[in-house]
Known about the structure:
Blueprint: E1 2-4, E2 7-12, E3 15-21, H1 22-32, H2 35-46, H3 48-51, H4 54-59, E4 60-66, E5 69-74, H5 77-84, H6 87-97, E6 105-109, E7 124-128, H7 133-143, H8 149-164, E8 165-169
Parallel strand pairs: 5-6
Antiparallel strand pairs: 1-2, 2-3, 4-5, 7-8
Amino acid sequence: MQWEKGKRMVMVAGKKRQKVSLSSVLPEIVRSQGWEKQLELYTLFSRWREVVDEQFATYTWPQKVDRGVLWLEVENSSWLQQLQYQKIELLATLNHALRLSRLKDIRMVLPSGSAEKAVPAANLRLRFIKPDQEKVAAFRRQVETIADPECREALFRLWYLDQACHQEKSAP
């Protein structure tokens, strides 16, 4: 493969084919592999407080999506029982928030270990902490080799959010 001004030269059996922009290929790969639907399901994690009502957001937090089933951790057995009655309504709300995918079911579990060790969802906060400017500059230098400016900027934004968002306990 040869790179030329943000484009990839595709070589097939020693013959040159059309030049393809990396930023145009990546979305197609995501779609063809079926990752687009899976990625959308995981956006529910970051939008949890926006999508569900305050009651769900306070006492539950998503853990994983496995074969169309969303696994939620519920603060305690009392809330688990209460939320079971609202499961169908919650499933409809979540599916309404999705464009491409659908959840088949929701499974609710208690935190592993003792209840004292569990961190209630109400006490978890997402904090945004700006990364050190030296780290930002170093990463910018690393991605300078990517010729496609859209791809380079998308990768930088992804890295920046990964570095800046921290989940931590707050005072009860």
